[in-house]
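#lab-general

N.A. 3:47 PM
ok so I finally got the sequence cleaned up, no stray characters, all 226 residues accounted for. can someone with queue access submit it? mine expired

B.Y. 3:52 PM
send it over

N.A. 3:53 PM
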Amino acid sequence: MHFNKFGPFWKKKDSDRQVCLLFHPRKKKMSTKEKGVKDRILETAVRLFQTQGYGNTGINQIIQESQTAKASFYDYYPSKDLLGKAYIEFYGKEQIILLEKLRSRSQNARDFIQAWTHILKRQTRNSEFAGCPMANTAAQIASSSPSISEEVKKLVLRTVEFLSIYLKEMQKKGQIPKNADTQSLARKIFACYEGVLQIWKLTGKISALDDLPEMVDAIIKSSGKK
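B.Y. 4:20 PM
back already:
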């Protein structure tokens, strides 16, 4: 199992290859003395923003739960906006790492989407999982924080670009229609990903996530048609 400072990213079983998104930090495994102040602040913010929401989490709570002096907090994060931006940056890095892991373990696009769906379903069984941090944070801040909005936008574009590059690789292998616009296809797949998560949040039905592979399969099949 591979660990970074916020917890396990993935694990592989003898008979069942599994990839697990890091975004939900575990309970503290190190003492506050063993962790750097900035790490403690960010880890606490990630946990609280994800479970309570960005708008419902105050700086004082983060300071208290991270066991940080107020002066030290403001040394690293002079404003909540800057901490929110760091939160999205952190999630963005982990999102791309996850997608890279899935790509390396998938034989084709269908396997890739199936594996992604499997992870989403596992996450929804975690009581702390509240859906896509990008969509949740963007909805909560509206237009009140240009810096966070810009970070969310960059992450969306980065994710779509990753999917587009992956689809081009599959296209070269003959798994995607030759005349398909992979950039457009990537945007549609990302839209499906966000959509099934929203349906799950609205209905509470994990089965909504099962629509993702079917939707993507239909989109890929029709992508080469004029």
